[in-house]
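Quick question, first post here. What does this chain look like in 3D?
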Amino acid sequence: MRLKPVKIPDNKFLEGIGFYWHTDPDATSYIADEIVEITPDEADAYYEAVNELYEMFAEAGEYVIENDLFHELGIPFNVIDAIKMSWDNDIHWHLYGRFDLAGGVDGRPIKLIEFNADTPTALFETSIIQWATLKVNGMDESHQFNDLYEALGSNFKRLVMMEDDVEDFENHYDGWKILFSSVKDNPEEESTVKLLQTIASEAGFVTEFAYMEDVEFSATDGVFYNNENYEYWFKLYPWEDIAIEESDLAMLMTQIMENQKAIFLNPAYTLMFQSKAFMKILWDLYPNHPLLLETSFEPLQGIAQVEKKIFGREGANTIIVDENEKVIEKRDGEYGEFPSIFQEYVELPTDNKGNSYQAGVFFAYEGCGLGFRRGGLILDNLSKFVGHRVVVD
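> Answer (accepted):
Ran it through. Tokens below.
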């Protein structure tokens, strides 16, 4: 790893722009005081990898639907109709997701770990904090693989345009409104949603924010807040949680889609991509693809591997074992009721202190923003965010 020490923007500045989760429970900064330096070729390789991966996900998604493989992915039955409807109609546009990748630096090949397609975090860090950090340190902010903010603005316009060219958005926009929602008492999620709201407003949409519990739903009339009807509803709340914990809401959302009264972001089909079991489908369709790691529903034989739950988060319920099935690292968690997948283990790039680095590349119509997470063998909710810059030797 090539690392360069940097000064972190102070907490007053960070809070002034809405970034309140800057300090971890152990009182250390969540934002690392170093950035990763990558080459232009490495940046290009990340970009090309996620573009290719997204095409593979789209083909595999069609395969899942055609062969009714929802059970294999752990998809709850009460959102299957919503998934099919959203998949069959392009107006249910995938706004953004984040690919988690091993490798890509220090000569290591890029490998897909998973795709956070529905409710990815680190949006604020990638699109805003990296720019602020470079500026504070007198570095050229343009020397990044990072136009995430602009890419999201263009992708909001594609909700209307449905095509690559969004220059004529103003002549196609007809006053459609987007309601943005997060749960209460979660500053990170609220600030992330409000950032997306800002981007959508700048793109030309009429927008509003409301906590999820304050939004009203009608199967026949759509989504409402303060008696105002909204054509789009963005919720930073996982589809699997809606299906499992909010079954009445899942039913209402499906009925709203059937009656074409609202469009939900991200669309229901992103739940397929979000399931880590999708990695098994990809491996079946693209065996030994250079961007993939072997993945199975059963323990792999004779190789180091990672067992993780299909809807687990932040490293919870994850076990790494070596080729002799000896446990190398383990995390407990709250996702034990979900099925497991077993994925070939690949070492992440490390620094001279033994910290591991995992690349996260956002996708909004195309690859558009890189950031890193730093931590131990299993990256958990105490991992640090590490920015980057592109350096020409």
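The first strand starts at residue 3 and ends at 5.
DSSP finds eleven helices and 19 strands in the chain.
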